[in-house]
Amino acid sequence: MSSAAVDIGDHNQLARSVSNSLNLSTSPTATFHSLSSSHGARNAAAAAKQLKPFATQDIKVLLLENVNQTGRKILEEQGYQVEFLKSSLPEDQLIKKIREVHVIGIRSKTKLTARVLQEAKNLIVIGCFCIGTNQVDLQYAADRGITVFNSPFSNSRSVAELVIAEIISLARQLGDRSNEMHQGIWNKVSAGCWEVRDKTLGIIGYGHIGNQLSVLAEGMGMVVIYYDVVNLMSMGKARQKATLAELLDAADFVTCHVPELPETLNMIGKEQFQQMKQGSYLINASRGSVVDIPELINAMRSGKLAGAALDVYPNEPGGNGDYFHNNLNEWAEDLRSLKNIILTPHVGGSTEEAQSAIGVEVSSALCRFVNEGNTTGAVNMPEVSVRSLTIEEPNHVRIIFIHRNIPGVLRRVNAILENHNIDKQTTDSRGEIAYLMADISNVNDNEIRDIVQDLEMLPACIRTRALY
Ligand SMILES: NC(=O)C1=CN([C@@H]2O[C@H](COP(=O)(O)OP(=O)(O)OC[C@H]3O[C@@H](n4cnc5c(N)ncnc54)[C@H](O)[C@@H]3O)[C@@H](O)[C@H]2O)C=CC1
Ligand SMILES: O=C(O)CCC(=O)C(=O)O
């Protein structure tokens, strides 16, 4: 934020500028619906230590992609202005809306690229109501002082259970039998249908989902092997393979659970299909970019693969409807024509349990960030937490200073703060970005304004907020 925006003669303007367009009020009568007291996330003693009141009703939130109502409710209980939409938005509409808001909540479809984020002049925080954060340009967001949160494991179990269902369904060709019956065809066959007991499951990416899956699969009598770039502790009797090729060579079922990264782009392609066992199965519920789908179609047509299940695709529509055609992905019709292939519309994490938990987790993190500056759990910022300012601390301000992590900045910050009483101060860095919080007591509005203006003059400044 440019210091030129600060009108030093106007208190309201000061409030706007210091809080980065969050028009925070010092009015002691303003109602603050404390996060802790409103949904019991903390114990009663902590709830009594309410954050200082400020005008939460000025905070604008845009929730896209039908984020769960639990999340919406928490944000509304804070008094924020919440706009809720069921689908994602095309880029032009997204740009128009994002200019207005301080907080945005998305799932996997909304692409928050640098092009979109550069228009988001008021945005301070993004909530990804999902695990994956590949849809957000995390580095660009950090460079602009925009903090990003996600929900790292609230839907992991749901994905793992879907994959278990798919393993059995593929082994027994359940999708085909069910489709035939829906067409009136009785086709009782056992050829090419198998039990999963004693078969080998190869898990690529042994993280939260991979772990859950490992335990469930062993419970069904499967042998579990996995491949991961990190050396990891095995669950149960699972064994890590040193290379992807070793896993592909040994597995009857191969399932992908890696994030979308440059290294995972088409990580299952022509060569990997050749390395897989004859008559094996492939499952992908990670990201559409991980599997080369035209090569998958070839492997299915040649009989190398006996079946496949896909939950994710390179291009996915923004909302529900009749979209899965070649104009979305050029091979869609070919994929649809294959036998024993289960196609689901990115529903791995779509259960009541998972969505409700994600709503609570991400919205709570957003509230803590907006109201307290707390970044615990952020995926692109240093994690910094300081206990809340309370209503017993009326002349205190919390300064939040996001800055470039270069030598000498703290010395200059301390020079600005040196004549004030700093009750607490903490700072941490993550790569090129550093995040500092300082609670200062016995300050008046003019002093707050001066502190903020001085901080914003520092060349390393990315963003300054003042909560008071
Ligand atoms: N279909 C759906 O609805 C959902 C899909 N997902 C996707 O699943 C992915 C995995 O989720 P989690 O298990 O929670 O993630 P996680 O971060 O817990 O685990 C990912 C694992 O992949 C490993 N990995 C990274 N790069 C690799 C590589 N090149 N080769 C082998 N291993 C590699 C990591 O070391 C890590 O152990 C997410 O990133 C997301 O894209 C997540 C939730 C729901
Ligand atoms: O539920 C969603 O929209 C996305 C699920 C997902 O892929 C994730 O959590 O990464």
UniProtKB/TrEMBL annotation:
Residues 398-468 form the ACT domain. GO terms for molecular function: (S)-2-hydroxyglutarate dehydrogenase activity; NAD binding; phosphoglycerate dehydrogenase activity. Keywords: Amino-acid biosynthesis, NAD, Oxidoreductase, Serine biosynthesis. Pfam families: 2-Hacid_dh, 2-Hacid_dh_C. Coiled coil: none annotated. It catalyses: (2R)-3-phosphoglycerate + NAD(+) = 3-phosphooxypyruvate + NADH + H(+). Pathway: Amino-acid biosynthesis; L-serine biosynthesis; L-serine from 3-phospho-D-glycerate: step 1/3. InterPro entries: ACT-like_dom_sf, ACT_dom, D-2-hydroxyacid_DH, D-isomer_2_OHA_DH_cat_dom, D-isomer_DH_CS, D-isomer_DH_CS1, D-isomer_DH_NAD-bd, NAD(P)-bd_dom_sf. Belongs to the D-isomer specific 2-hydroxyacid dehydrogenase family. NCBIfam families: PRK11790.1. This is phosphoglycerate dehydrogenase. It comes from Viridothelium virens.
